[in-house]
């Protein structure tokens, strides 16, 4: 993937019209944890899988899911500090908008602002692209629920279901097979846990954790990160189902 002199900074296009620094940032995302987001009939579910890198680490400190404001939450992957930086930028944008206009920022405006921020990091020689993808769930009184994904290039689109990371292809296929828009959030949670465990099949020898959050009618469309005990219970049931399926196939 060498850019032969065009990959030292992202302020110049290569003769083929490529920005290699963006491609390197996307590579950091592709080899990292799988993150997913799906819209259900009554809310949105965000989730991620992650490898526990140190047995001595306190559970829950390696967070990937965050609340931006009461009615918005996000999940990040890739270089987690980059994702956290983008998340803090989202919090600043939400706070400034509310101070200036007196209402909570609409989800599409917040996502577009984050996309523009990510894109600005691809045009200056003194900066580098964010090595992280962010999936954000929002709710506002103008457009209702929204699910957005901001990529290292600054691309930002709204989705019914999306995924990023090392298991994104498997996750996308599973999301497309299940019509999540016809199921409730509570029905979707075990399915998302199963998708996340399947997407990290190649890393199953290592200790793993999953994180999940919801925003639904039941929570008053407030972003809620699910507690560790409940998520671990879902993960154990999903792992048992996957094992039974494999035994049936054998």
From TrEMBL:
Proteasome alpha-type subunits domain segment(s): 6-28
Domain of life according to the entry: Eukaryota
Keywords, alphabetical: Cytoplasm, Nucleus, Proteasome
Family under the similarity heading: Belongs to the peptidase T1A family.
Function noted in UniProt: The proteasome is a multicatalytic proteinase complex which is characterized by its ability to cleave peptides with Arg, Phe, Tyr, Leu, and Glu adjacent to the leaving group at neutral or slightly basic pH. The proteasome has an ATP-dependent proteolytic activity.
Name under which the protein is recorded: Proteasome alpha-type subunits domain-containing protein
Compartment list: Cytoplasm; Nucleus
GO CC field: cytoplasm; nucleus; proteasome core complex, alpha-subunit complex
Organism from which the protein derives: Halteria grandinella
GO biological process, one term: ubiquitin-dependent protein catabolic process
InterPro entries named in the record: Ntn_hydrolases_N, Proteasome_alpha, Proteasome_alpha-type, Proteasome_asu_N, Proteasome_sua/b
Signal peptide segment: none
